[in-house]
Amino acid sequence: MFIILSKILDLFLGPLTWAVLFIVAGILLRRRARLAIGLQALGLAVIYAFSIEPTAGALMRWTEAGVVSTYRTDVVYDAVIVLGGGLDPDATERSGRPEYNAAGDRILRGYELLREGRARSILISGGSLDARPEAVIEADVLARQLRLWGVEPERIITEGKSRNTRENAVESEKIIRQQGWKTLLLVTSAAHMPRAHGCFAAVGIRPDVFVADVRAPPGKRTPTWLPRASHLNASTEALRELAGRWVYRLRGWTTA
Hints:
With 256 residues, the chain is α/β, with parallel strands linked by helices. Helices cover 52% and strands 11% of the residues.
């Protein structure tokens, strides 16, 4: 039930949804001319405000604030834990090959750590929201990719049940205890790291962290005021992550 509710919440956290609701309300209230015009103008203003770099950049900087890697170069970790979210499952199903989104850096950083000898094993945590038997399981796809890149199969462990960050931590904890791993390194996106690390801490696992997929632009640069779909997407992702942290804290799923 929480998964369904979270997807509904995601829908209403998007500025595009807010804008559409304002515009539709304006159309429905067209007999009240001033209110109708005001609502439609507000809808357009919302789209513009969240589609420009200053807004998107500020939200991403807020979301990634204080996030730093605690990776220790003098340690060979028992395992690096890579969280799912970097694969486009629909595109992967259509093409038959791994198709990545902006968070694809997660698996690349994990591979680099293995290749450089910084970790003995890798745990890939990520399932699917799709209940079909033939649905793409992200952990399985990424494991195949690592094998193609030359990583020995015995170094790769997958967890394909989890559907969200809470379940990433819960399911990974079982494997970590079973394997007897002590030194751990968590890899995920910068914006996602506070919630992810907090979820692992809530189940008794406190790994070092390695930040991937940094999206916040530098603070000191000339802003662009032209609206872009990419900025709207970044604003939406930041708002969703901030709301996710709040919900997870309320449920006691994260210490962040």
